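Provenance

Sequences were taken from public entries as deposited. Structures were produced by running a predictor on each sequence independently, with no templates supplied. The record for Metallophosphoesterase from Bosea vestrisii is shown for reference.
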Amino acid sequence: MSKIWFTADSHFGHANIIKYCKRPFASAEEMDACMIQAWNAVVQKHDIVYHLGDFAISRDPRTVRRIFSQLNGSKFLTPGNHDARATLDLPWACKDHIQTKTVDGVHLVLCHYAMRVWPGSHHGSVQLYGHSHGTLPGTHAQLDVGVDCWGFAPVGIEDIKRRLAETPAPAIEEPRGLTVP
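Predicted structure for Metallophosphoesterase:
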């Protein structure tokens, strides 16, 4: 049976992301090799991976295609701000900017960017995002699935559910009425 995985912000080929995000690699080549290995250690050939943007920084289609072809699974892209034509032209199964899926009974809204509200946010849906590289804390209902938060590998729904459960829900504030003079 295939499993479903989520990830974001791999930035394959992006040497400067090592410095920006304090990634523990000496070069982009080392980072790429480590992330390909980490991906394939958890994702099997028949699994599904939702990549929530910023797949690769390279604009060279051959380089991006070579990396893409080394990664296990059927891949779906939710484009990010760094996804150039070389990334967008890959054979992703889907390239919608916002996707909704139900996985293991959890209704998910997938987007590269974190949102304050999203479809179903007041009815138990969970939003998964990237873009912030672990600098924007998740809540009880939304979570950064970027590689910087998950050991440079895709994450499964069980770990997502566990992390969400560890984050307390905020106290509900009573709505404030408008005072009209």
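Residues 28-42 form the longest helix (15 residues).
The helical segments are 15-20, 28-42, 61-70, 85-88, 157-165.
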